[in-house]
Specification:
Layout lengths: L1 H15 L4 H26 L2 H29 L11 H22 L12 H16 L3 H23 L4 H29 L13
Helix pairs in contact: 1-2, 1-5, 2-3, 2-6, 3-7, 4-5, 5-6, 6-7
């Protein structure tokens, strides 16, 4: 589980350090695959067959379906590189490291009761959540902001699976379906922004204010 946690963090730092849209999409696909593997390992450890289903759904919905939607949006917008972010790659990596340190500093205070030491530390999904929020806050391209939101959701999802051993299967299924629908809506919104503003820069939305 420790190795999977480290891999999850590395995939999130990959998102933080990305400059090309394709790299962001690949990093998200890798991150989601790791989330699916975490669900699989937790299911094998706890002998919970529902988590096997969750792992399979995660791979189908996130790694396959959502990734293909994001790649289609990338091709439609003809997006190659990220619009110049508010802070550059080195600053983003350093701030990501600080968020990781912060997560480990505060997580012992909010660990849920009954957490086993063999479980994934709460600091890891918390750090993934905070880094996803950072991407949403600092990136300007609509596609990268969508990926930031998805990374944030992966952090929440991982925490629920690894620490609480998941939620009822129907709720897990509903969450994955909601995420898929949200990505489709956001993809349509990105296309509309591109068509109206001839740019996928979310900062250009300020020009629409009357």
């Amino acid at each position: 589980m420790t190795l999977l946690g480290a891999a999850l963090l590395l995939s999130t730092f990959w998102i933080l350090g990305g400059r090309r849209i394709k790299s962001y999409v690949n990093a998200y696909a890798c991150q989601s695959a790791i989330v699916g593997l975490i669900a699989l390992v937790v299911g094998a450890t706890t002998h919970d067959p529902n988590l096997y289903v969750v792992a399979a759904l995660t791979l189908i919905v996130k790694v396959v379906a959502i990734t293909q939607i994001l790649r289609a949006v990338e091709r439609r917008l003809q997006a190659k590189s990220e619009i110049e972010p508010r802070w550059g790659k080195p600053v983003s990596i350093v701030l990501g490291g600080l968020l990781l340190v912060f997560s480990f500093a505060v997580s012992p205070e909010i660990v849920g009761p009954g957490a086993a030491t063999s479980q994934l530390p709460l600091a890891i999904p918390l750090a993934v959540l905070l880094m996803g929020l950072y991407v949403v806050s600092t990136r300007r391209h609509v596609v990268t902001q969508i990926i930031g939101l998805l990374a944030l959701e992966n952090g929440l999802f991982t925490g629920a699976v690894a620490l609480a051993h998941g939620m009822p299967l129907i709720i897990e299924f509903a969450i994955l379906f909601d995420v898929l629908v949200a990505v489709i809506v956001l993809a349509l919104l990105a296309s509309m922004i591109q068509r109206e503003l001839v740019s996928a820069d979310s900062g250009e939305l300020r020009k629409l204010r009357g």
